[in-house]
């Protein structure tokens, strides 16, 4: 199977089996999504979703968060990983959005990464989810799954992974492809003991084919 054929197989599979894939973070507007994505760094979406309702009740919009003190925000996010840094980032992000962008969240990666707490991955998530831009966010799940399946080759960094994926995924599908890969990595192609027995991508997966080959060799050696 060529690399293009592998991509074609996987895209077709997800289009049939998960056509409406979307983020599992709960939000009702771009402000809430941006806050939730910042909080989700090295933290589960489940934990973030448990935390944000009270946070959003106290700080319902960008102006209210910009007026907050870091310690005020910290009270609401103590159960999140790295709460001190994230509280500082959230307040700094809101203040910069208010001062530099007139209170409107910018919708380009270049502008978003100027905000405290916002890196390339977060910027790609925001622009792809809010505006369906063809930006590929690469987290640990996407990085792992893409390499295992064989979508990427010797991609040593998230950026290298992003660029390789963008080369083969049609532009109009990039915004949803991130969700396909992250959800597959979260529930099927998990870090330890991937659930190959229930995976529909086996025919196109390099990891599975190698595992099958090794199992056959071991059986024949008995």
Automatic annotation (TrEMBL):
Domain of life: Bacteria
Domain HhH-GPD, residue spans: 39-187
Keywords, comma-separated and alphabetical: 4Fe-4S, DNA damage, DNA repair, DNA-binding, Endonuclease, Glycosidase, Hydrolase, Iron, Iron-sulfur, Lyase, Metal-binding, Nuclease
Co-factor note (free text): Binds 1 [4Fe-4S] cluster.
EC code(s) of this entry: 4.2.99.18
Required co-factors: [4Fe-4S] cluster
Annotated positions binding [4Fe-4S] cluster: 189, 196, 199, 205
Catalysed conversion reaction: 2'-deoxyribonucleotide-(2'-deoxyribose 5'-phosphate)-2'-deoxyribonucleotide-DNA = a 3'-end 2'-deoxyribonucleotide-(2,3-dehydro-2,3-deoxyribose 5'-phosphate)-DNA + a 5'-end 5'-phospho-2'-deoxyribonucleoside-DNA + H(+)
Alphabetical list of PANTHER family matching this protein: A/G-SPECIFIC ADENINE GLYCOSYLASE/ENDONUCLEASE III (PTHR10359), ENDONUCLEASE III (PTHR10359:SF18)
Function description: DNA repair enzyme that has both DNA N-glycosylase activity and AP-lyase activity. The DNA N-glycosylase activity releases various damaged pyrimidines from DNA by cleaving the N-glycosidic bond, leaving an AP (apurinic/apyrimidinic) site. The AP-lyase activity cleaves the phosphodiester bond 3' to the AP site by a beta-elimination, leaving a 3'-terminal unsaturated sugar and a product with a terminal 5'-phosphate.
Cited HAMAP family: Nth
Protein name: Endonuclease III
Annotated source species: Ilyomonas limi
Gene name of the encoded protein: nth
């Amino acid at each position: 199977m060529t690399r293009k054929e592998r991509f074609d197989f996987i895209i077709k599979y997800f289009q049939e089996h998960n056509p409406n894939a979307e983020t599992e973070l709960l939000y009702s507007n771009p402000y809430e999504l941006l806050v939730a994505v910042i909080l989700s760094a090295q933290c589960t979406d489940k934990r973030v979703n448990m935390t944000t309702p009270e946070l959003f009740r106290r700080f319902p919009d960008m102006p209210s968060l910009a007026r907050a003190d870091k310690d005020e925000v910290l009270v609401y996010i103590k159960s999140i990983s790295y709460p001190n840094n994230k509280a500082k980032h959230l307040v700094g992000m809101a203040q910069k959005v208010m001062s530099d962008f007139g209170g409107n969240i910018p919708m380009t990666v270049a502008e978003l990464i100027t905000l405290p707490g916002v890196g390339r991955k977060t910027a790609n998530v925001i622009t792809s989810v809010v505006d369906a831009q063809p930006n590929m966010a690469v987290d640990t799940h996407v990085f792992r799954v893409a390499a295992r399946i064989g979508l990427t080759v010797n991609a040593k960094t998230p950026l290298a992974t992003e660029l390789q994926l963008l080369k083969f995924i049609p532009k109009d599908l990039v915004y949803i492809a991130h969700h396909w890969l992250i959800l597959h990595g979260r529930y099927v192609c998990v870090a330890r003991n991937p659930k190959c027995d229930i995976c529909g991508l086996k025919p196109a997966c390099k990891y599975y084919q190698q595992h099958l080959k090794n199992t056959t060799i071991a059986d024949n050696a008995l």
